[in-house]
Amino acid sequence: MNVFEGFPDVPIQDVIIETQSGVFLAPSSLDLVGVEPYLYSINERALVLKTALKPIINEYRYILIDTPPSMGQFVINGLLAADRIILTLDSSIFAQRGIESLNQIFEDIKENTGRNKSPDMAIITRAGALYERKPPLDELKEVIRHLFTDDESEKKEKIRQEELEAEIKNSIKEVHAVPYDAAVYNAQIKGMPLTTISSDSPAAIKYEQISEIVKRW
């Protein structure tokens, strides 16, 4: 907000905090809800975040920009500030529609700014019921249930997810599917990175593999 007249000049260094996990964070706040209308009042609205990050660009090995799921100026600012773009998607049909909307944004960015932007990687998080690890007793109950029922819904859902992932791979070269893992939700509740509290969980192992690819960029 410090780019707008009437607001205090607060550099990004003043809002960065160090979290318990050792990750430095510039947190969001509800005040950002009212920012978008202000952005439309300035010419360089798409580069506000990129400009704000310049003073700290060499202080960190990696700077991750997390954008909101809505399509607007925050997403455009994040895309233009980033050197690389990673899409995080769930395995629902909405992921496919989201990619279509993003492709339109990339085209708009090229048309209005002359900058070519495209995803470098997509990370797909799988749906829960199909991939959840269950206690042995629950696994036995599941086997018995399948013996006496003719439920093909899970099989069909798995096929649908695999087809969606294959379709996404047609437009994005690097695509990774992260297995469902209840440890992810536990990490979110505790506000800690998954690799910090459950480094041997299936999702954490997959994210470690993805991070190794990112490190080579």
In a few lines, what is going on in this structure?
With 217 residues, the protein is mainly alpha-helical. Helices cover 48% and strands 8% of the residues.
Secondary-structure element sequence?
EEHHHEHEHHHEHHH
Secondary-structure arrangement, i.e. CATH architecture of the largest domain: 3-Layer(aba) Sandwich
Largest sheet: 3 strands, parallel
Question: How many helices in DSSP terms?
Answer: 10
Q: How do the strands line up in the largest sheet? A: 3-4-5
Estimate the strand proportion.
5-15%
- For the secondary structure, the number of strands is 5
Q: Runs with pLDDT <50, length 5+?
A: none
Overall shape: it is globular
How would you characterize the overall build of this protein?
The chain contains 10 helices and 5 strands, in the order ββαααβαβαααβααα. The chain has helices at residues 35-39, 48-53, 73-81, 93-113, 128-131, 136-148, 153-171, 182-190, 194-197, 202-215; strands at residues 17-18, 24-25, 86-90, 121-125, 175-178. The strands form 2 sheets. A 3-stranded parallel sheet has the order 3-4-5, with helices on both faces. Strands 1-2 form a two-stranded antiparallel ribbon. The two termini are 32 Å apart. 12% of the residues are buried.
Observed structural traits:
217 residues; 10 helices; 2 domains; Rossmann fold
Task: Summarize the SSE layout with pairings.
Layout: E1 17-18, E2 24-25, H1 35-39, H2 48-53, H3 73-81, E3 86-90, H4 93-113, E4 121-125, H5 128-131, H6 136-148, H7 153-171, E5 175-178, H8 182-190, H9 194-197, H10 202-215
